[in-house]
Write a structure and sequence with these properties.
Structural class: alpha+beta
Order of helices and strands: EEEEEEHHH
Strand content: 25-35%
Largest sheet: 6 strands, antiparallel
Shape: globular
Distance between the termini: 31 Å
């Protein structure tokens, strides 16, 4: 849950600023905003996040594809994702997709 994210953080240092390295949690309900903090050696080079006071950096494809968000923007996206998942069409989409193959 995005609101409880800051409860279990382990900060790293990058140029004197605390940063957190995060990967998408693997649970049965896909949620790209459900992140867990991991040590440097556990990050996925193909998709991980770096959180700092300056914002959120999404690093994909071993650094070849990078996306930057302000913290407020990332938080807004997470809340919108959660709101959309409450709509039955989106909530049940992946299940219906599997049965319609």
């Amino acid at each position: 849950n995005v609101d409880h994210y800051a409860e279990s953080i382990t900060p790293n240092q990058m140029n004197g600023f605390e940063t957190l390295l995060d990967v998408v949690s693997t649970n049965r309900h896909f949620n790209p905003y459900d992140l867990i903090t991991v040590p440097d050696n556990k990050t996925d080079p193909d998709n991980h996040y770096v959180f700092s006071v300056f914002g959120v950096l999404n690093v994909r494809k071993n650094g070849q594809d990078v996306e930057i968000f302000e913290l407020a923007e990332w938080y807004r996206h997470a809340k919108l994702w959660h709101a959309c998942r409450q709509i039955p069409f989106f909530r049940d989409y992946l299940i219906r997709k599997e049965f319609n193959r």
